[in-house]
Request: fold
Amino acid sequence: MSTEIRTFRIPDLDGDAAQAELSAFLRTVEVERIDTAYADGAWRILVLYRDLRLKEESLQIETAIAAALNGWRDRTASRDGLGRDAVLPDELVPEIARFAPTTEHELSVIVGGRGLDLGPRGAEIVAVVRSTLEDLID
Reply:
């Protein structure tokens, strides 16, 4: 989620509506920084922010992918007589959920930096992520 910028102008005269607009906006975002300046009879407010709706949506997507991956890990571990961590390490689940790789190449970038090779399970992991994303869209 990237930082966005929005500016507001609150005039000295009849600034109530502009102040109300700024207040309403600030309740819907995660503020990273606010800069102000006064010129030509009005305050200029620059707000650097992250949209909370996008943040909430991203968290919901990550949670759904992590849950699906954990379910797949349980089934695969049971089927193959392995521990969950042997199928897919615990610390990779949130990383995969965060980046939501939809190709094996994207997945290899995420796990390759950790020196891991998921072998034939890579295709299964990508399928779980894709399926989860498709379910969320429908």
In short: The mean pLDDT is 89. The first helix runs from residue 16 to 26.
